Amino acid sequence: MQDPRLRLACVLLLSLAAFASIVGAIAVFLWWLAFTARQKSIRHVRALAAAFLLFILIAVVMILSGSDGLSYLVRMTAILLVGAWVYADSRPGDFLATGVWMGGKKTGFELGMTAEMAMGMAEGLFCDFSRIRIASVQKGVVWGPRSLLPAGRVLICDALRRADETAEILAVRGYRGGGTVCTRFAVTVPGIIATLCAVAAFIVAIFPRW
Q: How far is CA 122 from CA 17, 45, 90, 94, 162, in A?
């Protein structure tokens, strides 16, 4: 999907649909099968698998406590797939352009820039985590739960350092807020069809509540 505005609309509609009901979650999964590259839309398989295992653990705890853990697992899996798709399908500048289009040169630009920085930081964290694992293997360190704490400490410190450096760069360049970006949105027929199907999934999800 080339138009970031349609992509954002699909994410919002599909997330709400998956959260609304298990029928909506199934509709979201079918949408994901039909309009994404499926396995190719997942850039970090291990991170996705770790999140899925966490959802399974929470679902098991909910089932043991008498709650509907299966419904939770289905809904969160659908939302996880949508999040993985939008993360893989996004391109640098998409959030900034969409923010300016929606909120103008002041608030919209700042929100878009914040989203762009968050996406860049997330990608940096994934790269740093991969480097930490490679370094651990080269040193002969057995990777396990005990390795997560020092690795997490390194990731947090690096993230804070990058945020501080980014703030310094913005200050040096004289940024005081607001801005603009010139872009052209490529609206395609497949993108419109995918968005309409996302609307349909949302309607199906909330229909039982009417």
A: 25, 15, 13, 16, 12
Q: Are residues 59 and 38 in the same domain?
A: yes
In a domain, 22, yes or no: yes
| In a domain? residue 101 | yes
- Residue 5's contacts (CB-CB under 8 Å, 6 or more residues apart) are 98, 101, 102, 185
Give the span between the Cα atoms of 60 and 68, in whole angstroms: 9
Cα–Cα distance, 142 to 131 (Å, whole number): 15
Residue carrying the six token digits 């899925």: 52
Residue 181 in 3-state DSSP? coil
Q: What is the CA radius of gyration of the chain?
A: 20
Identify whether the C-beta of residue 126 lies closer than 8 Å to the C-beta of residue 30.
Answer: no
Q: Residue 150 sits in which domain range?
A: 96-173
Asked if residue 179 belongs to a domain, the reply is no
Tens-binned pLDDT, residue by residue, of the chain (210 aa): 778 889 889 999 999 999 888 899 999 999 999 988 876 667 777 777 878 888 898 889 988 888 888 888 999 999 988 988 888 888 888 888 888 888 888 888 888 888 888 877 777 777 777 787 788 777 777 766 676 677 777 778 887 888 788 778 877 777 777 777 777 787 888 889 999 999 999 998 887 554
Of the candidates 13, 36, 49, 51, the residue with the CA atom closest to the CA atom of residue 85: 36
